[in-house]
């Protein structure tokens, strides 16, 4: 095929052979990646990192927390989707929304963030409008 393309340069045959060669090189790796992602979601052997969303102050960098008592350290509020965090802000702190920002946080970073800021644990917000929060204590 290479000889045929070299002899008939810039013709329909050459263009068809170029497309076939690009597809032959690119499609197998693309399909392999799709299969890997599909099976990674089905099994626990290759877990994909979970991304949570947090609300942070633009002025001083502090995180939005839930406190049980004033004397204890708070629970860092985590949202599963960015729109959940935004609807939480709009429902419960609409007047402060322009002073706060929503940031992504990988699940692998949560432990170090809890240690650095001294949080008691995390509060995973399941429903941002009620709000329904599941509290997990950091050990």
UniProtKB/TrEMBL annotation:
GO terms for biological process: transmembrane transport. It holds the Pfam family BPD_transp_1. Residues 1-51 form the ABC transmembrane type-1 domain. It is found in: Membrane. The chain crosses the membrane at residues 30-55. Its main location: membrane. GO terms for cellular component: membrane. The keyword Nucleotidyltransferase does not apply. It is a multi-pass membrane protein. Keywords: Membrane, Transmembrane, Transmembrane helix. It comes from the Bacteria. This is ABC transmembrane type-1 domain-containing protein. It comes from Dolichospermum compactum NIES-806.
